[in-house]
Design a protein that fits this description.
3-stranded antiparallel β-sheet; mainly alpha; about 260 residues; membrane; transmembrane; transmembrane helix; Lysozyme; globular; MGlyc_endo_b_GlcNAc-like_dom
Amino acid sequence: MHKWETLKIILIAIGVLVIVVFNAWLFTDKEPDLLDVPETEQAEQPVPDFASFENVDKRKDAFYAYLKPEVEKQNEYLLTLRHFIQTLQRQVSSGNTLTEKDLERVAWLAKEYRITKGLALPQQLDALLLKIDILPVDLVMAQAANESAWGTSRFAQQGYNFFGLWCFKRGCGFVPAARNDGAAHEVAKFPNLSRATYTYMRNLNRHYAYKELRQIRATLRKNQMTITGFALAEGLLNYSERGAAYVEELQSMIKYNQEYMSK
């Protein structure tokens, strides 16, 4: 085989490996082992058959009625964590020593949200506040609708995966029909809606690909402005290979579906 052809094959293999490693960070099957993930009463109920709604408005109403309470519950959980961190910040700034239980919880959160190792406690708490924050309901609903075709995809129907999340452990989910030869990813399957939503929101809050989203959110908070889905969508260029076109589609969906948010 010609040397150039051999080199070309090696470079292609390296490129595929880089893509796999990058996407592996988008989802892990690690389960929280210290803090309880909140679960709504409908978390383990079967996903409604959204395709059975022939009327588009009724389908959207059913979609929002099913998913919106879950998103709101997860945001309440994130705000509870923020309050905990802010309380610790006040204690540290006052010169008080944190309890062993509080330090254990901070260590778990630092690992769960991938905070840089070796930071002093005050810097850890600052970094956690940047990552642990709400995601606007309208943004989450727009992504869920976009990724699951308004809840009709088999990944949503059979595995509560409304967000297009991948996993990389054999048997962890569904093998996509259009998966390229040599690819190892599967579309993740979850035991209930709460676990799926928690994982998706944790992904946006901790992955380096969405650093811009978190910076936009932090700027809005600093200036005491409303955290909106339209604004944060600008930080999702890396969520889809479509890039800017994907962001524009999300923003259009957010604007067009505002009436369903108020119901």
